[in-house]
Write a structure and sequence with these properties.
Elements (H helix, E strand, L loop, with lengths): L18 H20 L4 H26 L4 H11 L5 H4 L6 H8 L1 H14 L1 H8 L2 H20 L1 E2 L2 E2 L1 H32 L5 H8 L17 H11 L3 H21 L9 E7 L3 H13 L3 E3 L18 E2 L5 H6 L10 H17 L1 H5 L1 E10 L17 H21 L8 E6 L7 H11 L4 H15 L2 E8 L6 E5 L9 E2 L2 E3 L9 E4 L2 E16 L2 E11 L2 E6 L6 H11 L9 E7 L2 H9 L8 H4 L4 E6 L18 E2 L22 E5 L5 E8 L4 E6 L2 E2 L9 H10 L1
Length: 708
């Protein structure tokens, strides 16, 4: 970090570590400086240790100075440029962070593992920005241990590659086994403990009129983060407060409409994109008026925490999406039964020690973003990949993790809310799209509630729903609907308005799996961090029996993409939800600004019929009675898998739920089929035909006029 100009100032970071940690930190930092001077290893391996030592040495310098005084904006920007140098796209492919380059230089045995370890070490910059020199010390000591092992495997001046690999492999595996308890406990405490307040202090105490504070997160601050901050700071107090009110009121209503007691809760986890602080600060104050203290956790930083797999918390748009994609499977270098067993033991113990806080946790309040530039990932053979045994282990791990969490955070007592806004990267119409999104989030839910009830009244007359695509859309699927014993008091579909899922606009049900069959197809859809082309699922008796897309040249790569990121490594998933989106205003916005493919699931699911693979919307809460605003009980809460919670709980849940939406312009028909064979249309040729829903067609008709 030589060349960084430092000035005197006052630090906002307070180190609360004992002298032994600081002594270890200083010793490790000094030892790192010696590595580039030694050169006792073969050139390739020496180059690796030199690059990583230079990086961690820079982090150590930054962290030590940051703990002593406040840096200027120029210094913070300079530090980021230096510490993200190898991660940025222009330099990544010539860095050991790139597994392809690492394997090229170090070989198959060492290259992938050492690249993965290096990627985890980049979390050190974030910790240094928080003043967590204890965690930085762990990474410096790990590198020094690896270096020591490598130098010990010198035989006659040449590296014994097999011995070096075996020893380094064990050192890396030991690191994750030994320190899983540190990071698992950190994760649990950051979620439920209101005393873990460092990130909350950034939100609540920083001078938001200056962009300096953005760098205090220790995350990549790019054009999206800076642009979002600048735009929000241009809005009026009234506009900002209105956005915060919409967000927090949705959370409150979520408890109200489900009959859950908010007064029992003491905390809410607030999740947001960096740059949104002007709204989040006001939201935190709103939550305080409800008796809730905000917990604010960071996005996943390490492979063992789920880095790169659509984690949330406080997050940014990454400096290099290909790098994040390359390293999405890094945990597979150490992921085995022993590791999972240890992690689950620590997770249970961490929740037990935080039992009171976990019981008082109300659930997440999430602000999502959308509008990143298109990204077509490159599959690199050198990246860490899972084995079939690891895939099976991951499914069990996910199941057992969910059980532990649910034992302490009772799903039937908590709620959530999600709202979304665009990023500057969505294009030159960013401000206009942002304004339109704000309008979407505040549509008159009572008007939609009335129209949606008319749709439900028709749906409740049938035994099956039939959905057919238009044009090149190959969808043709029949969905079996839950029987009604007392139609006067019961309903199949939930009338969903703007509470937990903002904006307004859908009716949904848990399908009966038996008899549900057919093909679901959509030309392009954005799910998680990835865009899928020609995504197709085939169902028999409500379960996925085949799937594909056209993202990559080979079918194997396409199926692997879906298997990892939609099926979450399950060999099969059921159809957990069938819904009809009614927010034609959101659909029109997407078409008007040509961003429909970039809309997040939260908004996209309201712009046409959608189908979710995975658990039902009522998972873990099936026994909680739910009513629509008209007083009818929603009885379609279970399916053939979730009901197994009473006899074979291990087979009841899949712990995932991904919505896939067919846009109106790819839709020919949605109809309900009655017991006596009548076909009652809901949507025909992309238009709502249920009497009383004509207003939903207005935005669609306006689009027709604009296209002429």
């Amino acid at each position: 970090m030589s060349g960084v100009s430092l000035e005197q100032g006052e630090s906002l970071v307070t180190l609360e570590m004992d002298e032994s940690v600081l002594e270890r930190f200083d010793l490790a930092a000094e030892r790192l400086l010696e590595i580039p001077e030694e050169g006792s290893l073969p050139e390739g391996l020496f180059s690796y240790f030199k690059e990583v030592a230079d990086y961690l040495g820079g982090v150590a310098y930054f962290g030590k100075v940051r703990s002593q005084r406040q840096l200027s904006l120029e210094e913070k920007v300079n530090c980021q440029e230096k510490l993200f140098f190898h991660l940025e796209e222009d330099h990544y492919e010539e860095s050991f962070l790139d597994p392809a380059y690492s394997v090229k230089v170090l070989g198959d045995k060492l290259g992938t593992e050492l690249s993965a370890m290096y990627m985890d070490m980049t979390a050190s910059y974030t910790w240094a920005a928080w003043g967590r020199l204890d965690l930085v010390t762990l990474m410096m000591e790990q590198l020094l241990l690896m270096y020591s092992m490598a130098t010990q495997n010198m035989l006659g001046g040449a590296l014994d590659e097999e011995g070096a690999f075996m020893d380094l492999d064990e050192v890396i595996r030991s690191f994750y086994r030994d320190y899983t308890d540190v990071f698992v406990r950190e994760d649990v405490e950051n979620l439920v403990d209101p005393d873990k307040d460092h990130l909350r202090r950034i939100v609540m105490e920083s001078d938001l009129t200056r962009e300096d504070y953005l760098y205090d997160y220790g995350m990549w601050i790019g054009a999206n983060e800076l642009g979002l901050h600048k735009y929000l700071m241009s809005l009026s107090e009234e506009q900002l407060q209105s956005m915060a009110d919409t967000y927090t009121e949705g959370y409150r209503i979520g408890f109200e409409v489900t009959g859950k007691d908010l007064s029992k809760k003491k905390t809410v986890s607030v999740e947001f994109h960096v740059g949104m602080e002007a709204v989040i600060r006001r939201a935190v104050k709103n939550f305080e008026k409800m008796g809730l203290k905000a917990t604010i956790k960071p996005d996943a930083l390490l492979s063992m925490q789920g880095r790169g797999n659509a984690g949330r918390g406080v997050y940014v748009t990454t400096a290099n999406r290909q790098a994040l994609y390359d390293h999405r499977g890094d945990k597979n270098i150490y992921y085995d039964n022993a590791y999972v067993k240890r992690r689950l033991e620590v997770l249970k113990d961490a929740y037990e020690k935080n039992k009171a806080n976990a019981g008082a946790y109300g659930g997440p309040a999430v602000t999502e973003v959308f509008g990143e530039a298109d990204f077509e990932p490159v599959n690199k053979k050198e990246a860490a990949k899972s084995t079939p045994k690891q895939d099976e282990l991951a499914v069990r791990d996910r199941r057992d993790t969910a059980k532990i969490v649910n034992d302490y955070i009772h799903q039937e007592e908590r709620s959530f809310t999600i709202i979304a806004y665009p990023l500057p990267s969505i294009g030159e119409d960013f401000e206009a799209i942002f304004e339109e999104t704000v309008k979407l989030n505040t549509l008159d839910y009572k008007k939609y509630q009335v129209m949606q009830q008319k749709i439900i009244d028709v749906l409740d007359q049938g035994e099956q729903a039939h959905v057919v695509g238009a044009g090149e859309n190959r969808t043709d699927i029949t969905v079996s609907l839950h029987p009604l014993q007392d139609p006067g008091k019961q309903t199949r579909f939930e009338n969903c308005v703007a509470d937990v899922n903002i904006p307004v606009g859908e009716v949904f049900t848990s399908p009966v799996l038996e008899g549900t069959r057919g093909v679901l197809h959509v030309s392009k859809v954005f799910l998680g961090n990835l865009a899928y082309k020609d995504l197709t699922f085939t169902f028999e008796d409500g379960c996925v029996v085949d799937y594909n897309c056209s993202n990559f040249p080979s079918e194997e790569e396409n199926k692997k993409l879906i298997f990892d990121n939609i099926l979450y490594k399950h060999k099969m998933l059921p159809l957990g939800e069938f819904a009809i989106g009614t927010n034609t205003t959101a659909y029109k916005m997407g078409i008007d600004y040509q961003v429909q493919a970039k809309l997040p699931i939260l908004i996209a699911e309201k712009t046409g019929p959608h189908f979710a693979v995975g658990d039902t919307c009522y998972s873990y809460c099936e026994d909680t009675v739910v009513y629509n605003p008209n007083g009818k009980e929603i009885v379609a809460r279970d399916n053939a898998f979730s009901i197994k919670r009473k006899s074979d709980p291990a087979k009841a849940y899949f712990n995932c739920h991904t919505d896939i939406t067919i846009p109106y312009n790819e839709l020919a028909l949605i109809e309900v089929i009655t017991k006596d064979g009548r076909h009652l249309p809901i949507i025909r040729d992309g238009r709502f035909v249920v009497p009383g829903t004509e207003e939903l067609n207005v935005p669609l008709e306006e689009l027709d006029k604009e296209s002429r």
